[in-house]
Amino acid sequence: MATSGCFRLLSRAAPSSSWRLLAAPLRTSTGWSSAVRLGPCRPFHAAAGLSSEEKVTVHFINRDGDKLTAKGKVGDSLLDVVIDNNLDIDGFGACEGTLACSTCHLIFEDHIFEKLDAITDEEMDMLDLAYGLTERSRLGCQICLKKYMNNMTVRVPEAVADARQSIDMSNNS
Amino acid sequence: MSRIGGILGCASLSALRVLLPKGPRAGIKRLLSTAEFRPRICIVGSGPAGFYTAQHLLKHHKLTQVDIYEKLPVPFGLVRFGVAPDHPEVKNVINTFTQTARSDRCSFSGNVTVGRDVTVEELQKAYHAVVLSYGAEDNRTLGIPGEDLEGVYTARAFVGWYNGLPENRDLKPDLNSETAVILGHGNVALDVARILLSPLEVLRKTDITEESFSALASSKVKRVCLIGRRGPLQVAFTIKELREMINLPGVRPLLDPADFRDLGDAIKDIPRPKKRLTELMTKTALEEPSEEVGGRWASASKEWRLKFLRSPLEVLPTIDGKRARAIQLAVTRLEGAGDAVKAVPTGEVEELRSGLVFSSIGYKSLPIDPAVPFDSKRGVIPNNSGRVLGAPGLYCSGWVKRGPTGVIITTMNDSFDTAQSVLEDLQSGALELSGAKEGFDLVSHILRSRGVHPVSFLDWEKIDAVEVARGKLSGKPREKIVDQEEMLELIGH
């Protein structure tokens, strides 16, 4: 967890309240700041220590089928997990966890979905506008990690644009 | 690397690293040759479509240079000038756009009107690809007598006015009518209704302009009637905005039970979003509210209602013939089924007294330049996944690509889709990269020769800082500068 620890140090060093840099950032060590965090789990990002207790592992199946695995603390939202671990999911969390968009839409496994906290009308309202809505859809910013979620797999739904072969020219010219 | 500020800026470092392992000499040679063929792409318009297109291109092609041109001195289009001031959450996307603009491979040039200061043809000479993301700058008109009377406004101008759009700063709407009529059942109509009815203590803390706030503070509007030609199943607004209206403090919703009583069967098989939306309207119309809510509604001093099956015929003038006095409506009934359902006049005519009428029947894109194909009937640039038909090297995204509908995620996906087309064409060779293009160097030369002074992103950040500082004095996120000249003076133009 050296990398993630490094991020947390950087985060705390940066006082800016603009905590989101890019919806799907690259793996670089520029100054992330997570001073302000919205969402249902914690009104602001707790400046907790680096202890690894209460960590939950989550697997994300990205739109291209790639599996991204990351850890978060109990109480973190899935949006926190994506941001804190710099997971490369295009356009994820555009409204920064304020229930004003549906870009953090995730699809859950049956046995996990059944145990999730009840959904609010406001979350349902935003999910109504999500792409690829399923019976097991929720917004990542509204789901907070609990111990029983350890090793769960969530799927990023395909957007219309992703039905096509995705091209990434990051590593070539 | 002059700056390591932006994530995207650092990306070119990793691209460089890929080139280096072959040994310094080979590396430098390859670097030079790739620099020569660096794809240069420009984007016309800096609203969400422009910025999401730029973001996707920069992220997925580590050599490309993206230059964004904007008509106004300030960026972000409808995120700044369209999103309602009491919806600051949606404006969080600006944080991501700002990171994109700060990238070393991205530039922003405001105060440049493409089609006037520089032509699309000239942009095509300077860039390998040109993406048109300039949105929908006009609105559909009612085409009825009395539309030009005082007291009749387009929702678009009203939204521009309270959001500080320079061209609407002198609108000065007359808010002395107790009843306001809004023609249209979309989210913009609900935005206008909400701004007219919201408690002042809510609006005071938003980035609504000072002038519009004081005008609203002395507004006499108590009742807002939103009129649609068709029925409850054809409304275009979304559920979040409807719920907000229903829960608006100090305001009572009035939905006619007769409009909803017989919907029962019709909503069984419709898709979830429309079903939940219709159920919320039906519940509000037919069910007894809880004691608390009922009490709140009973004591409310303002109200709004949805009126269905009415088509505007004429705005009637006051005796002096100058101002709106009332609106004449044709009662309609529905014919046909599904999305094709049409409102047909029954012959019955009604009159509704109101000195304040807003038309909110949709935005409309305009052609930008004779060199660009345009479908004036649909109000879009004809395209296939963002590739402008019959015009290689030209692309479009956002409202000018698919029409003026949808929420932020719609425009995001749509812009990613266009960027994907550009990337595909770069990879397949459909986009001719053999000749180096001069990009901004050429364009800035052209602009200089015409006496046009572009506003850079750094310039915008100066304007931004002044707005935020002014807002702070009155407990607002910002006080928008509404005078274009003042903006330019601030940055020494």
UniProtKB/TrEMBL annotation, chain A:
GO molecular function: 2 iron, 2 sulfur cluster binding; electron transfer activity; metal ion binding
Pfam family, one: Fer2
Span of domain 2Fe-2S ferredoxin-type: 56-160
Intracellular or extracellular location(s): Mitochondrion matrix
Gene3D superfamilies associated with the record: 3.10.20.30
Key words of the record: 2Fe-2S, Cholesterol metabolism, Electron transport, Iron, Iron-sulfur, Lipid metabolism, Metal-binding, Mitochondrion, Steroid metabolism, Steroidogenesis, Sterol metabolism, Transport
First-listed, main subcellular location of the protein, grouped into a coarse class: mitochondrion
This protein's GO CC annotations: mitochondrial matrix
InterPro entries: 2Fe-2S_ferredoxin-like_sf, 2Fe-2S_ferredoxin-type, Adrenodoxin-like, Adrenodoxin_Fe-S_BS, Beta-grasp_dom_sf
Cofactor(s) in the UniProt record: [2Fe-2S] cluster
Gene Ontology terms: biological process: cholesterol metabolic process; P450-containing electron transport chain; steroid biosynthetic process
Assigned protein family: Belongs to the adrenodoxin/putidaredoxin family.
PANTHER family the record matches: ADRENODOXIN, MITOCHONDRIAL (PTHR23426:SF26), FERREDOXIN/ADRENODOXIN (PTHR23426)
Name by which UniProt lists this protein: Adrenal ferredoxin
Organism expressing this protein natively: Python bivittatus
Gene it is expressed from: FDX1
TrEMBL record, chain B:
Reaction catalyzed: 2 reduced [adrenodoxin] + NADP(+) + H(+) = 2 oxidized [adrenodoxin] + NADPH
Keyword check for Cell cycle: no
Entry GO CC: mitochondrion
Main subcellular location of this protein, as a coarse class: mitochondrion
Keywords recorded for this protein, A-Z: Electron transport, FAD, Flavoprotein, Glycoprotein, Mitochondrion, NADP, Oxidoreductase, Transit peptide, Transport
UniProt signal peptide: none
Pathway: Steroid metabolism; cholesterol metabolism
Enzyme class (EC, first level): oxidoreductase
InterPro entries: FAD/NAD-bd_sf, FAD/NAD-binding_dom, Ferredox_Rdtase, Ferredox_Rdtase_adrenod
The protein's Enzyme Commission number: 1.18.1.6
Residue positions binding FAD: A49, E70, L78, V114, W399, G406, V407, I408
Domain of life, per lineage: Eukaryota
Family: Belongs to the flavin monoamine oxidase family. FIG1 subfamily.
Protein name (record): NADPH:adrenodoxin oxidoreductase, mitochondrial
Taxonomic path: Eukaryota, Metazoa, Chordata, Craniata, Vertebrata
Gene this protein is translated from: FDXR
